[in-house]
Specification:
It is globular, with a radius of gyration of 20 Å. The chain has an 8-stranded mixed sheet with strand order 1-2-4-3-5-6-7-8, with helices on both faces. The chain is of the alpha/beta class. The relative contact order is 0.10.
Length: about 400
């Protein structure tokens, strides 16, 4: 098979230095974002992670898919959680909240890149518990809704878990514009503190849902149409709640969630004011040539094992060989029909979801809008939010 001329250029064939070891990951890729508190370390603290990574490095624990990696975080989590509980019991909820968020962030990184064992699931449950100890006590709190999956079939689970955050002004008499936030491969409902704050600050509500094959999503990961049923159930429930302005609902999909933001923009055109697909892979992303090198690129760990599990395949090889025909939004015709207003965001040096997929969408269906960031990585970070929020404000106006 002839090698494609990927826009990633020479970087397509280069294995990132951070893949050499856990020490290389920490030193070359993760320590700096941890220090400044950005993805994937938002809500966290450098001092907590330095202890954990010192242990991982000293003990040469390099496989993040292993239980040994995950368990290395637990002592720090448990010590910090005990401190947070004590402070909360004294009535100092603000200080306790900050500590609970640090605990949740530790558990987040411990369960990366996907829950593939009972130990990883234990970390996930602990992350949610710690996060909600903080989020339920905010002035504009986050609360969990377990809604019936009314549109689900026998292959789907019966309940859709959602996180909901509303501005204090929201009521049946004053329904608010709302973001349906669609999460990604490793970032889930408790991983959106700042985004949800930005939404309520603007007077918008937010409903956060996980994508098929990740976290607590009930949607059948093997069924390419399961997300359509998922959004039917979520939007139907939102309509019955009366606090959401159903004429001003915008979807925002992050990373792997960007795929679903593109899909929902077409399959639920009449029910959305717009959709943002940030870092979306829709067709070339499933190409065997791309996947053959994806493990070498910017993702902190090997990417293919997590993707194979997420899309319901029993092996990486099966995922590489079969996924494009089944899940491509081009080959399945999804993007060839009209869509709602759709904003595409990404960096040209994205090593997870090729920028070719963003450009490809301009060849199909309804005219699109986009902001592409030269030489930036996946999702166009750190510059992309400065384009997304003004667009959302315009759409919601």
């Amino acid at each position: 098979m002839q090698q494609k001329n990927w826009m990633l250029g020479e970087d397509f064939n280069i294995r990132g230095k951070h893949h050499e070891s856990i020490k290389a990951l920490w030193d070359t890729k993760w320590k700096f974002p941890c220090k400044i508190g950005v993805y994937p370390f938002h809500d966290g603290s450098l001092e907590d992670f330095e202890m954990v990574f010192d242990y991982l490095i000293k003990n040469s624990i390099n496989d993040a898919y292993s239980d040994t990696y995950t368990e290395a975080f637990f002592p720090t989590c448990e010590s910090l959680l005990e401190k947070a509980d004590s402070i909360s019991a004294s009535g100092n909820h603000n200080e306790a909240s900050a500590l609970y968020l640090r605990v949740a962030c530790l558990y987040r990184i411990s369960r990366f890149p996907i829950m593939n064992s009972p130990v990883k699931w234990k970390a996930w449950e602990a992350q949610k518990a710690a996060y909600m100890k903080a989020a339920t006590k905010w002035a504009e709190p986050v609360h969990e809704e377990l809604i019936p999956h009314t549109a689900g079939t026998g292959t789907d689970g019966p309940t859709v878990p959602l996180y909901v955050r509303l501005p204090s002004t929201a009521s049946a008499e004053n329904p608010v514009p709302t973001i349906l936030l669609i999460t990604g491969l490793d970032g889930y409902r408790p991983d959106n503190t700042q985004r949800s704050y930005e939404f309520v600050r603007r007077g918008w509500g937010c409903v956060i849902a996980e994508i098929p094959g990740t976290a607590d999503s009930p949607a059948d990961p093997k069924d390419a149409k399961s997300p359509d049923r998922l959004w039917d159930s979520v939007l139907d429930w939102m309509g019955k709640e009366r606090v959401f302005d159903m004429g001003k609902v915008v979807a925002w999909g992050l990373s792997c969630g960007g795929y679903y933001a593109v899909r929902i923009a077409h399959t639920h055109k009449e029910r959305l004011r717009g959709s943002v697909a940030q870092g979306a892979g829709v067709h070339h992303f499933f190409d065997r040539q791309w996947l053959a090198k994806a493990d070498d690129h910017e993702y902190p760990f090997d990417l293919n094992p997590a993707l194979a599990q997420k899309f319901g395949y029993s092996s990486v090889q099966e995922f590489k060989e079969l996924s494009q025909k089944k899940f491509s939004l081009v080959d399945t015709g999804i993007v060839k029909v009209p869509s709602t207003r759709l904003l595409l965001i990404n960096g040209t040096k994205d090593g997870l979801m090729p920028i070719e997929d963003t450009l490809l969408l301009f060849e199909h269906g309804t005219p699109k809008e986009a902001r592409i960031f030269p030489n930036l990585l996946h999702m166009g970070y750190p510059d992309s939010n400065a384009s997304v929020y003004p667009w959302l404000e315009d759409v919601m106006a």
